[in-house]
Write the structure tokens for this entry.
Amino acid sequence: MGGPLRVRALVLRETPVGEADRILTLLAAEQGRFSASARGARRQNSRLVSATEILSLTDFSLFARGGRFVVDDAERVEAFAPVKADLVRLTCAAHAAELVLDCVREGDPAPEIYRLALRTLHALSRPDRDPKLTVRAFEMRLMGLIGFAPCLEACVVCGEPPPADAPVRFSYGRCGVVCPKDACRRVAGASEPLPAGVLAALRHVLSAPEESVFSFSVDEDVRRALARLSERYVQDRMEKEYGKLALIAAFEEPAAPAKGAPPQDASGPAPAADA
Ligand SMILES: [Zn+2]
């Protein structure tokens, strides 16, 4: 090949190797997921230190050598500093990075997932957005992108749209809503009530234009119910337990009846998620 490959990529994982090197796992729009080694990237005065730090958006200059990429040069474009300065935001971002890595195979182009990952980091950087809501919107949007969206518009048993204001249930086993008919509930087996606010939030997250996926707000009880649903749904679909989810859950304060919650971000095209 000729000159170096220039590519903008997100650093989703960095593994220390040897005395001062890093192996990077990167995500780029065209190239998808790939690895590159960054020689000397852990030396204090290396210009690669910050550019190859996890959760950085970086312009890389890469050489192919012996079947793998080697970082020739790198310049950080965005550091997402607010994410790294806050334990809750950082944990949510690290969980998102792990989930993305599980959903993208080496070498498969993943422009939509790349853009979602970037938008997630931007949303997690915003002080006016609750990271615990952002990470759930990310999770369910990602499930949609990889073909695991739950069925929300029609009952998973009879196939009919449930009446607009009827109380529906959610079946994890059948990946979608179950209408109130006794026969459907019987056939569906295990299911649980799906609050209308959670259903509206899920519809928004799965069908909104990508630039407004995170532009919504919900009541605190809806956010908690969405968190429970998303956590279980993602782990069921991915057939994996995500350790950072337990950490995120640990950041939840016990549900309190207090009404003094900080105001939610209501800017942007907020859907009637709590209607
Ligand atoms: Zn039905």
Q: What stands out?
A: Confidence is low (pLDDT under 50) at residues 260-269. DSSP finds nine helices and eight strands in the chain.
